[in-house]
Design a protein that fits this description.
alpha/beta, four-stranded antiparallel β-sheet, 13 strands
């Protein structure tokens, strides 16, 4: 588990991260989202003890990460796939990490096999593509078999097969009870990967909720319902926090709840539905709308 409490990082008059409080729970893939420059990488570096917070605190399983010896056994992280010695082979790079963290040498071959780089183990990293470097970075994160994993933009440079593989990997790691924290600015990808979303803009928390709730609350979600008992259903929906705009005596447009939740609610109260149809924009559109005021640089912006 990762717990951040009023985490703040200032560089002079610039607030990179401001008063950020959140919890990343085990057993879930948590997406860490925000526009470029939102403070995501700075937050990850503070989690790993690479940057000291100006104020506030962040712990991993109740302890600051910098207090843990042999850190790869506790937290695996991929921050920058390009930040590797190009003259080393993949095997040498991982072997050095294994020795410094007292990890058995056999583990190096295991993770190279797992990420699909076994045949490239003795090739120099300088000749790797970005996608191969991403796989090597993921191998390094997995090396200590840690309970907590952090990934910063792990999909950069991956081909479609690689993207599908990473999705499956994250889901498997979470199913094993690990804490999986994935930083990205790609809302469309997180739609297929994350269980929960933490969204920040200009270093401050914007949203912290399940993917389902984010969809219902922030997407331009509308569900058409048609029922001969609209008044009864309307009362139930409003009690659940939804809004209902009547379009006729038996039809209305509902916002704030998914079609699945509306259908379940009607079923539990024996209300007959003649129509239940979702009309929604993409989660990426919802993310763009939610973070529009937090984007640092806009294309076409007047100078």
């Amino acid at each position: 588990m990762i717990e951040s409490t009023r985490l703040t990082k200032r560089y002079g008059d610039t607030v990179a991260v401001g008063n950020l409080t959140f919890t990343v729970e085990p057993g879930k893939v948590t997406g860490f989202l925000g526009p470029n420059g939102a403070g995501k990488s700075t937050t990850l570096r503070m989690i790993l003890g690479l940057n000291a917070p100006t104020s506030g605190a962040v712990t991993v399983d109740g302890v600051p990460f910098s207090h843990r010896p042999r850190g790869l056994r506790h937290v695996g992280a991929l921050l920058d796939a390009q930040d590797v010695h190009g003259g080393r082979t993949a095997q040498a790079h991982l072997s050095a990490l294994a020795r410094s963290n007292r990890i058995p040498p056999a583990r190096v071959d295991e993770v190279l096999q797992e990420v699909g780089l076994a045949k490239a183990a003795r090739r120099r990293i300088g000749g790797f593509s970005l996608g191969m470097k991403q796989r090597l970075g993921i191998a390094g994160a997995l090396l200590g078999d840690p309970p907590v994993l952090l990934f910063d933009e792990p999909l950069n440079g991956l081909d479609p097969e690689g993207v599908l593989w990473v999705r499956g990997l994250f889901r498997r790691l979470a199913s094993e009870g690990r804490t999986v924290f994935v930083s990205s600015h790609m809302m469309a990808e997180m739609e297929h990967t994350a269980d929960r979303l933490i969204v920040i803009g200009q270093g401050r928390l914007i949203a912290d909720e399940s993917l389902e709730d984010f969809s219902a609350r922030h997407a331009s979600l509308g569900v058409t319902v048609h029922t001969p008992d609209l008044a009864a259903l309307e009362a139930l929906l409003i009690a659940e926090g939804a809004s209902v705009r009547r379009e006729s005596d038996q039809a209305g447009r509902v916002t704030g709840l998914t079609a699945e939740r509306i259908g379940n609610l009607a079923h539990r109260h024996c209300i007959v539905l003649h129509e239940l149809a979702s009309h929604t924009s993409s989660l990426e559109s919802a993310f763009m709308s939610l973070t529009a005021d937090s984007v640092e640089y806009l294309a076409g912006e007047a100078r």
